[in-house]
From TrEMBL:
Belongs to the CvfB family. Coiled coil: none annotated. Gene3D superfamilies: Nucleic acid-binding proteins (2.40.50.140), Winged helix-like DNA-binding domain superfamily/Winged helix DNA-binding domain (1.10.10.10). SMART domains: S1. Residues 4-65, 154-214 form the S1 motif domain. It comes from Mangrovibacillus cuniculi. It holds the Pfam family CvfB_2nd. This is S1 motif domain-containing protein. Signal peptide: none annotated. It comes from the Bacteria.
Length: 289
């Protein structure tokens, strides 16, 4: 087998030196396996499975500590650090961390992965032969996905973000279930590689899921009503916002849709806490605050 950077190769021990052994392929090309990179003792003429890469000095080197991923083989790896505007580093199981280039990350830096997040990656080489990690495409993720059962409807979903788009967030669970969160079903956009939790709101015929990060409408209405009522109290019991206010004004002040705002006002009025008159919403005087 030939020596190839970024892959596990089966090579034979050609000769020993004080600091390790030199391995050769069937064409006579050699690579050093340092003593520090051995997981067991080896002898001349032994066949050894090693991973080949360039070390920090750019020298070809081999290790018996086989990484989680290689060229053409994908796996989950941990993000360990950010590298400025150039990308993020991931730990693939070697002494040397590997860069995920900004070319393989979302256009919006705000959703780049952070230390502790996980990415599904493979390896590739740059023009100088250095290894880079590349994030799996939609087709690759689809190849490992499983069809979700109908019983998932309305159940909790825990998954990892594998793709960030303006239209929404793409997730895959540890079980292999794929899910999509439309931008209208989230209050903020999670990071690539972030582990998140939501609720299944649809199980599609192809076995993929639609998930929401928003609380159930009843719970959200309670939270929205509390927010509006607190705002009223802070303003001395009145505000120039009613169910006739524009969606833009409501969004700017409360970060709520007009529909959510009207539902919350309706609840407060039903409970006898507020009233609307002359373009104002007021706390009722007979309410014990």
């Amino acid at each position: 087998m030939m020596i190839e950077i970024g892959k596990v190769c089966t090579l034979f021990v050609a000769r020993e030196v004080d600091f390790g052994v030199f391995l050769e392929d069937d064409r006579g090309e050699s690579v050093l396996l340092h003593n520090n990179e051995m997981t067991e003792e080896v002898f001349v003429d032994d066949e050894v499975d090693v991973f080949v890469y360039l070390d920090k000095e750019g020298r070809l080197t081999a290790t018996m500590k086989l990484p989680k991923v290689q060229k053409g083989r994908y796996g989950w790896v941990d993000v360990v650090a950010e590298h400025g505007e150039h990308g993020v580093f991931v730990n693939i199981g070697l002494l040397k961390d590997v860069l995920v280039s900004n070319d393989d990350l979302p256009a919006w830096h705000s959703v780049w992965p952070e230390a502790g997040d996980r990415l599904f990656v493979s390896l590739k080489e740059d023009q100088m032969g250095r290894l880079l990690a590349k994030v799996a495409t939609e087709n690759i993720v689809a190849s490992i996905a499983r069809k979700a059962p109908k019983s998932m409807y309305n159940q909790k979903f825990v998954g990892t973000v594998y793709r960030c788009q303006k239209v929404g967030t793409y997730l895959i669970s540890d079980e292999g279930y794929k899910a999509f969160v439309h931008y209208s079903e989230r209050q903020e956009e999670p990071r690539l590689g972030q582990k998140v939790e939501g609720r299944v709101i649809d199980v599609k015929d192809d076995g993929t899921l639609n998930v929401s990060f928003l609380p159930r409408k009843e719970v959200k209405m309670d939270d929205d009503a509390e927010q509006i009522y607190s705002y009223l109290l802070q303003r001395g019991g009145q505000m120039p916002y009613t169910d006739k206010s524009t969606p833009e004004d409501i969004q700017d002040r409360f970060q709520l849709s007009k529909a959510s705002f009207k539902r919350a006002l309706g609840r407060l009025m039903k409970e006898g806490k507020i009233e609307q008159k002359d373009g104002w919403t007021r706390v009722k005087e007979n309410v014990n605050n």
